[in-house]
Amino acid sequence: VHILRDMAKAFDNAMCELGFEYFVSYGMLLGLVRDDKLIPWTMDNDYIATEQTLAAMMALTEEEKFVFDKYGIDFLYDNFFRVCLTHDFMDGKLAENWIDTNETRLQGWYPLIYPYADIFIAREEASGSYMVDELDCAHPMHTFRPLRRTPVYNNSFSLSLPNRPEEAISVVYGPNWRIPDSKKSPHGDTPSPKNQFSKLKTKHSTTA
């Protein structure tokens, strides 16, 4: 979890240098808001970015991608948008402990084995009323924007959180989100949200 913490700081530094917007989300957001640190048994970091931001990130030139290289991380698409560590993370000190399998030699990153982050797609509805995530959660736009630069880990560094983080968490995890998961699932058990955009859209159409 300390590696994930340092990875979060590296990702934030890179995104700020590139001028890209992102939001800490899901279990990562839950841990930071509830305890000012990542959930101890978590497997990865979680972010949300808009379709436009992710398209711009994918369009970066090799020269522009150097910003990620500088911090020892890599941004890629592997069925999901992900951030992974490279040999240069922590000046190569962490890589000294990694087993150099054929896969890592070929890929240069460490899929689902070593710490990584998922970046989930969010779309802004044409009306501007909602930010809709990959779970089909309809977050009122004021819940996310303007993003809030928030000190974490006892004010040791800052990350980009939704404007109203507790509301964003409640939409996904329900009213009892302050109670830790007794199962300690590495990926968490995200319930089906009640405010799914597809259902809200149907309801509004019916009412109209």
Any idea what the shape is?
globular
Structural class call reads alpha+beta
Subunit organisation of the chains: single chain
Mean pLDDT: 87
First-to-last CA distance: 49 Å
State the share of residues found in helices, binned by percent: 25-40%
Q: Name the beta content range.
A: 15-25%
What's the alpha carbon Rg, rounded to whole Å?
18 Å
Q: How would you characterize the largest beta sheet?
A: 7 strands, mixed
Number of strands: 9
Low-confidence stretches: none
Count of helical stretches: 8
Give a summary of the structure in a few sentences.
The protein contains eight helices and nine strands.
What attributes does this structure have?
globular, alpha+beta, single chain, 8 helices, 208 residues, seven-stranded mixed beta sheet
Topology:
Layout lengths: L1 H17 L4 E2 L1 H10 L9 E6 H8 L7 H5 L2 E5 L3 E5 L16 H6 L8 E9 L5 E3 L5 E3 H4 L3 E5 L4 E5 L3 H9 L23 H11 L1
Parallel strand pairs: 2-5
Antiparallel strand pairs: 1-2, 3-4, 4-5, 5-6, 6-7, 8-9
Helix pairs in contact: 2-7
Molecular structure report:
There is one protein chain. 34% of the residues lie in helices and 21% in strands. The protein has 8 helices and 9 strands. Strands 1, 2, 3, 4, 5, 6 and 7 form a 7-stranded mixed β-sheet that branches. It has a two-stranded antiparallel sheet with strand order 8-9. Strand 8 and strand 9 form a beta hairpin. The radius of gyration is 18 Å and the shape is globular. It starts with a helix and ends with a helix. The mean pLDDT is 87.
